[in-house]
Amino acid sequence: MTHTATETVRQTPGTYGLDVTHVHGDAFEVDIRGHRLLVDQPTEAGGTDVAPTPVELFAASLATCVAFYAGRYLQRHGLPRGGLRVHTEFTLAADPPARVESLRVTVTPPHALSDQRHEALLAVVSHCTVHNTLRLPPRVEIGLALPEP
Description:
alpha+beta; two-stranded parallel sheet
């Protein structure tokens, strides 16, 4: 899909947007609803390592979604969220195309969560939005917008 930057891209309900702009070298700034964060590459990959990589943010997106769902579960049951921890590891594929081959997410609940509630917590966090998206991948379209003259 090609459109000029002056065209208005109509967003429908449930559609969200964010913008990425070049900062320097391999560093880019992401603007999400006025929240700004950086991405970069490690020095060994040619970047300046001033920020996480896009792939690290991808894994972080899953981890923080799981943490959010776990936190809401604990809150609904009147339990403290202090001590809740989510650890994530990912492996890059050795063969093309470049991609994340596997992700492992481990939730450490607070001590206040009884053993009887562990299965329920796991069921809830397994249905976080990012995990659901990975299980049922979205349609992805990559287009080109022409710069303004």
